[in-house]
Design goal:
Blueprint: H1 28-47, E1 57-63, H2 70-79, E2 87-93, H3 102-112, H4 115-134, H5 140-143, H6 148-152, H7 157-165, H8 176-180, H9 186-196, H10 210-228, E3 231-237, H11 243-255, E4 260-266, H12 268-277, H13 279-286, E5 290-293, H14 300-314, H15 322-338, H16 345-361, H17 369-379, H18 394-403, H19 410-425, E6 431-435, E7 446-450, E8 455-461, H20 466-477, E9 485-490, E10 501-505, H21 508-522, H22 528-540
Parallel strand pairs: 1-4, 1-5, 2-3, 3-4, 8-9, 9-10
Antiparallel strand pairs: 6-7, 7-8
């Protein structure tokens, strides 16, 4: 069983989204983009007359960085159930088209239509021909090879059409041209015969010029509208500055294929490169009807909504409560803050997939700190908490941030950690004569000698009240008459000390290092290599 009593791991396991995963859409930015695209489709569809013109064409650009969810959104749009009744979509991943010549690109566009859409079109064409046969339009009956034996057997043209659809009978294509030539163009008739004969995707062998590609795509869009009453959407993912691709796209935009929508998906870098390479194409992109910019999709708030949406989608009985959301959010925020590598949709979902698997193996009801920690250790062995000198595990980092960093006892904990750190480093001789009896003045926590014999006093000042912190430091400075140097360890952002006072401003990472060291020290869990790390930590705070 997976966390939150889920039957499956809700997160995608592949680096690129699958169509089934794209059904789930989280993040306010992505939802707003979906609304905009649906508005464009609705607007275009609502304005189509019985005979669409080149005014019935729309261009959408979708732009954002790698891993921001552009492909996911495109596939989500393609798979929306509410669009299945009024759109047909061809999705092309241009990164898979090589070389990017006219032939390969056209072949990829044909392959980009789903099998379901091709089957639906085939059914519509055969139904149309069957209707013409029943109405005795020209030699339509001969297309179905309808003869005396069929009449005697009581077969209708609908029966013959059904047998053709089932592959149990074939059609006579010699009469298709004669039956349809008054209603359809030569290109459309060739496509109709190819679709009925299950050779639709082989049509690319008949097209060798850019003009031919445009004419064929126009014919496909026309057939989709006339026979299915559907718009045609052409989606080009990974669109970039490749010269051959730019020429094809320019021709598509210029053609304004009636009853169609062109969606171009790219990164900001690709968009800027297109501007340099082909100003003409860039000008057309700038005039797109809708410019979808997914800026902000990588903020922690957006990522959290996306993460939660996957769980909500599969959580049919609401085991994933608000409390669970808050717990998981606190863990994700740590990852987001500490690892820039995971500040995009693709990367964070990969972390969640493996963490969910780890949680399932340990029968954890939640995606806990340990599951996330094990994922980072196993899948990203080179990653460390930013600035951590003690190699603090992520699970410990999360625990310390949650239980120790906001505590009123933080100053006491840090003071205790400094005492134990200096006591521990005496093993190397860097520090000697550690005295923790505070015998030389107010606000001095301990006194020790370094390996040069310099007498050093240490004052720990961790106080939220800035004025009180300054007063503590000022009081500690009076001890300089009794020691050679004063080290003030503080988190108040105090300016660098003068006249024998060294002020070390400890950031969050230093504080967590100290608390982690102290916990290991008290639990007698320090290993041999921890001594070296402790020396580095002490030196980073000017203690030795």
């Amino acid at each position: 069983m997976y966390p939150y009593f889920l039957n499956i791991n809700p997160y995608p396991s592949s680096p690129t989204p699958a169509l089934v995963d794209s059904q789930i859409l989280g993040g306010n930015t992505h939802k707003q983009a979906r609304t905009a695209i649906l508005s464009c489709i609705e607007d275009l569809y609502g304005k189509l007359g019985s005979n669409p013109t080149d005014k019935d064409f729309r261009l959408i650009t979708m732009i954002q960085d790698v891993g921001s969810g552009k492909t996911h959104l495109a596939l989500h749009i393609r798979g929306l159930p509410e669009l299945s009744t009024n759109t047909v979509t061809s999705y092309v991943d241009l990164s898979r088209v090589s070389p990017r010549d006219i032939y390969n690109t056209y072949e990829s566009i044909l392959s980009g239509f789903s099998n379901e859409d091709v089957v639906t079109m085939r059914e519509a064409i055969i139904s149309m021909l069957s209707f013409k046969a029943e109405k005795n339009v020209g030699p339509a009956r001969k297309i179905f090879k309808y003869g005396l034996s069929d009449r005697i057997a009581g077969k209708s043209f609908s029966d013959k059409a059904r047998l053709v659809l089932q592959g149990k009978e074939t059609m006579n294509y010699d009469y298709v041209d004669e039956v349809l030539r008054d209603e359809f163009s030569e290109i459309q008739i060739d496509l109709i015969k190819g679709i009925v004969g299950d050779k639709f995707r082989k049509d690319s062998a008949n097209v060798r010029t850019l003009e031919g590609v445009i004419n064929s795509l126009s014919a496909i869009a026309n057939l989709n509208f006339r026979l299915l009453n559907k718009l045609t959407i052409f989606q080009f993912d990974e669109f970039d500055s490749n010269n051959e691709t730019l020429e094809i796209i320019k021709a598509l935009v210029n053609a304004h294929i009636p009853s169609s929508l062109l969606m171009l998906i790219m990164t900001p870098a690709s968009y800027n490169e297109i501007k340099k390479v082909n100003a003409s194409v860039f000008d057309r992109l700038e005039k797109a009807n809708y410019k979808i910019d997914l800026a902000g999709s990588n903020t922690v708030t957006e990522l959290l909504d996306i993460i939660f949406e996957y769980i909500r989608y599969y959580d049919k009985i609401n085991n994933f409560t608000t409390e669970h959301e808050n717990e998981l959010a606190s863990r994700i925020r740590v990852i987001y803050d500490e690892f820039p590598e995971f500040r995009n949709v693709r990367s964070i979902l990969n972390i969640l997939y493996h963490a969910t698997e780890n949680a399932a193996r340990t029968n954890s009801f939640t995606i806990d700190e340990q599951s996330i920690d094990d994922t980072i250790k196993r899948n990203y062995p080179g990653l460390k908490i930013r600035g951590s000198l003690m190699d603090v595990p992520l699970s410990e980092f999360i625990r310390i941030r949650k239980t120790s960093m906001s505590s009123d006892a933080l100053e006491s904990n840090v003071r205790d950690a400094i005492k134990n750190l200096l006591s521990y480093t005496t093993q190397t001789g860097n520090v000697t004569g550690v005295n923790i009896d505070n015998i030389i003045g107010n606000n001095i926590d301990l006194v020790y000698n370094d390996n040069y014999g310099t007498k050093i006093a240490v004052a720990v000042v961790v106080n939220k009240d800035h004025s009180k912190a300054l007063a503590q430091i000022s009081s500690a400075a009076k001890s300089l008459s009794l020691v050679d140097r004063l080290v003030v360890l503080t988190n108040t952002g105090t300016a660098v000390g003068e006249n024998g006072t060294t002020v070390v401003n400890m950031d969050k990472g230093k504080l967590i290092d100290l608390i982690y060291f102290n916990d290991k020290f008290k639990n007698e869990e320090l290993l041999k290599d921890d001594l070296e790390k402790a020396i580095v930590l002490a030196k980073s705070m000017k203690l030795c």
